[in-house]
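Example record for the data management plan.
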Amino acid sequence: MSTMLDRAGLSVAQPLVAFIERHVLPGLDFDIDRFWAGTAAIFAELAPQNVRLLAVRDQLQGQIDDWHRAHAGAPIDTEAYQSFLREIGYLVAEPDAFTIGTTNVDSEIASLAGPQLVVPALNARFVLNAANARWGSLYDALYGSDAIAGPPQPGGYDAARGALVIARAREFLDQAVPLKGCSWRDFRGGLVDLEDPAQFQGSRGRSLLFRHHGLHIEVVIDPDHLVGRHDPANIADVMIESALTTIVDLEDSVAAVDADDKVAAYANWLGLMRGDLEESFDKNGRTLRRTLAPDREYDVGGQHRLTLPGRAVLFVRNVGHLMTTPALRLPGGDEAPEGILDAIVTSLIALYDLRGLGRYRNSRTGSVYIVKPKMHGPEECAFTDRLFDAVEDLIGVERHTIKVGVMDEERRTSANLSACIHAVRNRIVFINTGFLDRTGDEIHTSMHAGAMIPKGEMKTASWLTAYEDRNVLIGLQHGFAGRAQIGKGMWAAPDRMADMLDQKLAHPRTGANTAWVPSPTAATLHALHYHAVDVAERQRERIRDAVPSLDALLTIPLATARNWTPDEIARELDNNAQGILGYVVRWIDQGVGCSKVPDINDIGLMEDRATLRISSQALANWMLHGIASAEQVDAALVRMAARVDAQNAADPAYRPMAGNETASLAFQAARALVFEGAEQPNGYTEPLLHAWRARAKAAGVPSGAAQA
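Corresponding structural encoding:
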């Protein structure tokens, strides 16, 4: 446990004090005493409000539980149910018509459409790769993924596969920047005669820069390159703008349970804002060094130059309102709300960018972009607005410099989305759907209504269709087009790029101008969808569509009169138990909050706490309603412990669970998430994960063994 130091009446862990006072404040010429006094004032004013909001959550959930118990066994009367939700304040009145007033937003967020990466803040190499994913090689993305059928042949460059890649890239160029009277397949170099000459933007050496749907494409011409020398036009690659924005995540994808963890995450954010973050690592016996990519310069004729950003515009995702942190304790001894600490520290660090003190600029318009997850309803959004007001005053920046991205991932937020947007209307730059968290909250909110349909069937449930559509249409209704992002959720299978290319085209077709991807390769391939769909035009078309009603959104996905077979039950139990254990064992034993975890079919999926929430809530619900007994769930956990052990056999840092279930902290944590799931606040996994991870660290389990 860290030594605690007094700062303006707060007890602050020594690592956090050292980080702020030695590494952050001096470079900003910010007075140390003024910072801590202002921080203490923010906690004094807002920490009690934070506690009250959490009490409201519990009160509402208790009232909903009681209502469902009182109506057990009867079909849900839609009108009576919604009337009850309005009576208790779960549903609020819609605000009058309004348009968001956010200003000073970078074009990557306000007006362009393209992929968005999410990366755990604790992994410096991943963070650098994600920040640098603004530009991606289409040749590499196609060659190294299953977007082109079959694996490359061993032994160096596979020319046959390369030919397929080149043909696919030429097809893309024909669609995005067509030549007049011929195909890029027939291009042999020389002058480029485009159907639309305005698409040509400049050159860099022999390479040519084009623009389509606001996104840039660089055709790299290099006769000395391995590929270029054999190409009739000496085209060596096609580089495309890929991840316009990246979210550096302090929340669901990290395991940060104490001051040391928090400081490690904050330090990577500081390195990004100063532009000096770097990481060295070994690969195939060679030491490689990662740094932030510089901007890209092009000749546009005469003495004029065009400079394009070399990096994605960075958001930082703070934690939500629920969790507290031992890194800072309030005057009464209670742990401080972690979300308040995140807002203060990440915004303070962003002053390096706002003042132009870093090597590169993140926001060219002078904004700080913070994603705020897991807010429940407009009152909590309004609290975030007040918090950001207070932080702006502390760090001395103009009102609404700090922008907010609202994750539309809780049922009370999606049901009151207009009111939530209204509460932060002058700083909102982003709304985003999240299937997994939203499903977890759907199950927990209606835990006592009855047994839910299986997890796999949720994707076709009526509430989910309404949820996804409402998010786009409500955003457009309030003026997001040309001002802010409307986002869609993650593609979780990083090895299945062919499927992603087939399915994720649906996201821009809805009118959403961004969607989450798990890797730089996925960002490059998903960028093709924003060339295939003119999102701005789709938004102009969709703004005329009617917003789906609350009736559909609030339809509870109950498995009414379902006769379950023993095999159906066993498959669902095993599927959820395997997913829970596969993720939790890395979280507890290795401190890894997000990684590619094999599912029950050995397909690698990017898992974070949102995945865990839905799986644990699904099993808790089935136990509560007698679909499965406690004994059946325990048996599934034991079976799947052996399965997960086998899937991780090659990991030297892995600690087996099978046969060691009682002593394995990871297994016990996984079991607690299920057996205590119905009582966890809003079904969240964080309280139990943090408690068990802290026990593991106290017992000497290494930190972050798989983070590198």
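Summary line stored alongside the record: The chain is about 45% helix and 15% strand.
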